[in-house]
Amino acid sequence: MTSIDTVIVGAGISGLTTAAAIGKGGSLVVLERDTEIGGYCKTIKRDGFTWDYSGHFFHFKHAAVEAWLRARMPGQDIRTVAKKSFITYGDRQIDFPFQKNIHQLPQEEFIDCLYDLYMARGPGMPAQPEGNFKEMLYARFGRSIAEKFLIPYNEKLYATDLATLDRDAMGRFFPYADLTDIVRNMRNPDNASYNASFTYPAGGAIEYVKALATEVDPSAIKLNEGVEAIDLEKKTVRTPKGEYRFERLVSSMPFPALLRACGLPVDEQVFTWNQVLVFNLGFDSKGPRNAHWIYYPDRALPFYRVGLYDNIFDHPRMSLYVELGFERHAKVDVAAERERVLDGLKRAGLVTTQKLIAEHSVLMNPAYVHINTRSNAAVADLKAKLADRGVHSIGRYGSWTYCSIEDNIVEARQLATKLGVAKAWAWT
Question: What's this model's pTM, rounded to 2 decimal places?
Answer without folding.
Answer: 0.95
